[in-house]
Amino acid sequence: MRTVADLGIGEHGFISGFTDEKLSLKLLEMGCLPGTEVILTHHAPFGDPIAIKVSGYTLSMRREEAATILINHK
Amino acid sequence: MAKIPKIALIGNPNAGKSSLFNTLTGLRQKTGNFPGVTMDKLTGIWELGPKNQIEILDLPGIYSIYPKSIDEELVINILGNPAHPDYPDMVIVVADASNLKRNLLLFSQVRDLGIPTVLALNMIDVAENEGYVINSIKLARELSVEVAEVNAKKGIGVNGLKLAVQKTLENRFASNDGLPLPVSEELIDEIQAAFGEVDPYRCLLWLMEHDRMKMFTKAQCADLDQIMVKHDFEPKKYKSAETVKRYEFLTEVVDRCVINLNRQWDAPPVKTWTDRLDKLFLHPVGGYLFFLAILFVMFQAVFTWATYPMDAIDAGVAFLNDWLKDILPESTLRGLLTDGLIAGIGGVLIFIPQIAFLFFFISMLEETGYMSRVMFIMDKLMRRFGLNGKSVVPLLSSVACAVPAIMSTRSIGSRKDRLITILVTPLMSCSARLPIYTVLIALVVPEKNTLFGLFNLQGLVLFILYLLGFFMALFSAYIMKLILKAKEKSYFIMELPTYKAPRFKHVSYTILNNVKAFVFEAGKVIVAISIILWVLASYGPGNSMEDASNRIKIQNPNLSGVELTNKIAGEKLENSYAGHFGKFIEPAIRPLGYDWKIGIALITSFAAREVFVGTMSTIYSLGGEIDNENATIKNRMRAEVNPQTGKPMYDLALGFSLLIFYAFAMQCMSTLATTYRETKSWKYPLIQFGYMTALAYLSAFLVYQTLS
Asked: Which residues contact B653 (CB under 8 A, 6 or more apart)?
């Protein structure tokens, strides 16, 4: 399964689900809804955390958190 | 007088809530404390018209009603509990129009609680620049709520907001969609039967969040737990499903009320300023360089520019003290007033310039949106040491004072990360250590240039002491990371807001409010301690003080004036309670190279380390000719001879041993009190005091034994 953590800079995908129930509520509230497009925009130095564009704004998260967001290419 | 209505301001972080608060209330603001919690409460008066005042309460920025960190808990504790003294008559939800859907999530939750609500649409100009046109009349109809378009930064739209608020206050109309997702009626009935007839969504909030709400007793929590088990209700599942459901509804609403011009014209997405600036600030190399440059300017301000107003305050307090000593008759009360109370207040006031400068920088960095980038680039590094990207702010703030720094840890969501940050923050060298460093460095480090004349050796030592504090904080954090157990995982899901020009009005309010909080909160403790110290240093067991004074007069029949007064003061101190304590601990501090005089300084500066210099000047019986107080203390200390070796007492070994001790020791009651308030347990201030004192003692011991 591909996750947001697998994206390279500038690549995009569509959210298809979550693997961590506790994190998923926070992510949902922040606008990471199933079917929404995400684009990876930045890596922090050393590749972690990452920043994604979702629902029209920039959201940062750690790589391990990004790995709980499943994506597909629709 | 009729009770004035209360309105709570609520909204996502960065939605412009604070600017709206400042626009509405201007300088009619007041900081205070929420009952039972230590969070700063910011309220202000909004004048709707003559004789028509409203009290506005500024609540912490949140994304959802379900709290994820301690500062977020406050919101449900107030909005969820109608009996709370701060429970508002209505709520204004401030929404960022350029990110409408996500902002409306919170709005829909608050409205379903059954509180009359007005929606203030902010940043419509930003949305329009990005190609979104919002039909707010239609939005008002769809959400059945009064909507006001405002520009909080420029103060436009306030009249429209007034109308909307007045209408809502008159109708007391709380539109309510009931429950976002149906649950069994018996579940709601049971909660209502036990806890009162309230809106069903509020019932669910109680059911799901009762652990975080202070309104419930232990027995009530158990009842709610039972209801939850009986109906097989799963809060996590419900909350997730509810969020998805709300977004589905809001997506439809937004689709009907917002026209996306980009889509119609098929325009390529615009490259915004934020994208361009992030290229620099998040750059693997450039990002760090820029952050270092900012740090450099900040330090320059706090340590160089702030000294001018600090000297002025110092001189002013000294002048007031001397003046009072001149006009008041010699008495115990005069001593208490001048050397106890005014000296204590002076000790608080002197830190205002540094704290003001520091908060100027921190609030500028936060205002512009740059602070979240700092957290972003620092997170990985900090995490290795058991900290969090968000720990950067407290660590930075503690260069001025650990008290506001510890309070700023509330935004750290993970309890373990927050605890570690609180525990290690006082290792950063705060401004109270600066005068001690200055005196001791001047005493033992020669003033000469080094490294090809680039650096002054004294300045270099000072810089190394600051670095030492920082690295010791990281090291201690790393050890604690290994010891402390984490119940929950830390997370770093955080919005990177768009860059904005700072609002200087907002920055100045932040400085003002923080300085006020410092002066009154920390001030109370420091003043109380100063008075206690004064008592301990002015009185001794039995007649010992009088005997000391007589002894000096008999031993030195030829002395008079200032010299005699000084000698008597020195002898009195030696025989005071403080002096006895000093002698008592002397055996313990001898391995570090300290004698009983330094022992007194250690004891007095246990409460607040800034009294070190003052105590030293009393111990080495100073007074009179104050041209340059520090120079005088320095000279007296330099002249002090070690009775055992016959060489100067303050040699390199003792100087560095003291420097290291003061760098690591926990000598600040205010910080311990703050740690207690923030962790709600005596365990953590005790740990903090214990490990830091042990660290200070061992390091000073090693330094002294190596150098001597």
From this structure: B593, B703, B704, B707, B708
What CATH number does residue B71 fall under? 3.40.50.300
Tell me: the pLDDT tens digits for B561-609?
Answer: 666 776 777 777 778 888 888 889 899 999 998 988 888 888 877 777 8
Q: What is the mean pLDDT of residues A35-55?
A: 90
Give the count of domains, chain B. 1
Residue A27 to residue B493, Cβ atoms within 8 A = yes
In this prediction, residue A65 carries a pLDDT of: 93
Nearest by CB: A33 against B244, B284, B381: B244
**How much is the pLDDT for B562?**
66
Question: By CA distance, what is A66's nearest residue in B?
Answer: B493
Indicate whether B39 pLDDT > 70: no
B chain contacts of residue A45, beta-carbon cutoff 8 Å: 284-285, 287-288, 377, 380
Distance from CA of A1 to the nearest CA of B (A): 22
Say if the Cβ atoms of A23 and B491 lie within 8 Å.
Answer: yes
**Could you tell me if residue B40 is inside a domain?**
yes
Whether A60 sits inside 8 A of B496 (CB atoms) is yes
ipTM of the complex: 0.93
Q: H/E/C letters for each residue in B420-473? A: HHHHHHHHCCCHHHHHHHHHHHHHHCCCCEECCCCEEHHHHHHHHHHHHHHHHH
CATH number (domain holding residue A67)? 2.30.30.90
- Structure token pair of residue B8: 């709570």
Q: In what order do the strands lie in the sheet with B6-11?
A: B29-33, B40-49, B52-58, B6-11, B90-96, B117-122, B146-149
CB nearest A57 (choices: B99, B105, B278): B99
Enumerate the β-bridge partners of residue A53: A39, A58
Residues of B in contact with A59 (CB under 8 A): 493-496
State the pairing for strand pair A57-61/A50-54. Answer: antiparallel
pTM reported for the whole predicted model: 0.80
The CA distances from residue B458 to B125, B126, B266, B470, B652, in Å, are 53, 51, 64, 19, 13
Q: What is the pLDDT of residues B134-191, one digit of tens each?
A: 999 999 999 889 999 998 888 888 899 999 999 888 887 666 667 888 888 888 888 8
| Structural domains of chain A, count | 1
Inspect the interface and report whether the beta carbons of B102 and A31 lie closer than 8 Å.
Answer: yes
**Is residue B157 classed as helix, strand or coil in its secondary structure?**
coil
How confident is the model over B280-288, as a mean pLDDT?
A: 88
**Do the domain assignments include residue B83?**
yes
Between chains, do B493 and A44 touch, taking CB under 8 Å as contact?
no
The pLDDT of B96-108, averaged and rounded, is 93
Q: Give bridge partners of residue A69 from the DSSP assignment.
A: A18
CA B608 vs CA B121, B422, B596: distances in Å: 48, 18, 19
Q: What does the block give as tokens for B182?
A: 């149906």
pLDDT recorded at residue B411: 76
Per mean pLDDT, which range of B383-397, B510-524, B649-663 is the poorest? Answer: B510-524
**Which residues of A fall within a CB distance of 8 Å from B263?**
none
Amino acid at B361: F
- Contact residues on chain B for A21, CB-CB shorter than 8 A: 236, 240
Q: Note whether residue B415 is domain-resident.
A: no
- CA dist B76 → B82, B188, B210, B608, B655 (Å): 11, 19, 10, 37, 53
Residue pair B525/B668 in contact (Cβ under 8 Å)? The answer is no
What is the reported pLDDT for B699?
Answer: 95
Domain that holds residue A39: 4-72
Q: pLDDT at position B625, please?
A: 39
Residue entry with tokens 């002015």: B538
Q: Which candidate from B240, B376, B491 shows the least CB-CB separation from A65? A: B491
Range of the domain at B151: 6-171
pLDDT band at B30 (very low <50, low <70, confident <90, very high): low
Say which residues have a Cβ less than 8 Å from residue B603's Cβ, sequence separation at least 6. B578, B581, B582, B585
Asked if the structure places residue B155 within a domain, the reply is yes
Distance from CA of B322 to the nearest CA of A (A): 57
